[in-house]
Specification:
367 residues, mainly alpha, A middle domain of Talin 1, globular
Amino acid sequence: MEITPMTTQKTPHSFITSACVLLCAGVISLAATAGAAPTDSDVLASLSSQGITKGITELAANSQTLADKAKQYCEQKDDASLAEAREAWKKAYISWCWLSPFKIGPMKEMQLYKRIGLWRSNDIIFKGITTSPDFKAMLKAPELRGFAASEWILFASEKPSAETACGHLVDVASEIAELSAQAQKEWGEKSSEFVNAGDGMPYMMESEAMSPVVAEALNTTETMLRDRIGLPSNFFKGEAKTELLEAYHSKTTGKGLQATLDGLKTVLDGGAPASILELLATKDGLVNKKNPKLAKAIRKNLDNIQKMLNKITAEKEPLAKQIADDPATMKKVYKKLQKLEEQLLELSLGLELDVKAGLEAQILRQE
């Protein structure tokens, strides 16, 4: 049988055919890529770049601005510099809230939360330490430093001018900046260990790197429930104690809650398709099967929490007044966060993560 050679002349039809073949191949290739399940390594890389690195970089930058503006105010003591210092505080605090679920590695080892994030003292104590030199010895106590102390000095009075107050403001703002910069530097040096988990110490398996992240997400959810909503609302059992709200004086509580939720959403689904939730939906473990139903339920719950927070933050009244006057909506947020906490525990089981071991490993590295 004679085989007729193909002509090199292309007809319009052959151009269309070739284009269709190339287009179809491209579509198939894209579909395969889009439908590919993420690996543990993909998720760790996403958590590092879109979560921890992004968060600690923003915190370091905003904290340095706070330190600069606090110093500027204490030198000038005018309304304009006070307004700038207050705005810088809000940005740094919101960055801190966003980073909350990512406080692993250097942040945990440095005890960053204890050193700059505690919120336990009341106005009487803050007034005492910032107005009288007699309480100078107390100024180094962790609960009288960090974001809580700097917020009180900047917002609790019209214009803080006492030397003790300004000295403490500059001191704690500088410490926040220095610790944030140190955490950023150390994470930059250690992030490759996290991303390449499974290649050796300190993470012999990918799950050993991912477990602390989920554990910290659980910690953050519990902190929101207990400290940021439960205690100030008196757990919805009596008269609200709104003075216990974080960022009460600056009226930044609602934005802080929103930033924390944004951080949680980034932990769980921020790197889609290389996200923890996508891993839950597509990965079979040694014992447990993939669970797309739970992944969908968590996404739905996060959406519901967001809608409720949208309603709260849209109000002109500060969150403190809303909790006191109309606690029903915040109680709904509380219930949904409780559900999220339960879902995170189920997620950790589904992905066969040992959140308890994750926390213990961080403590050991810290020691």
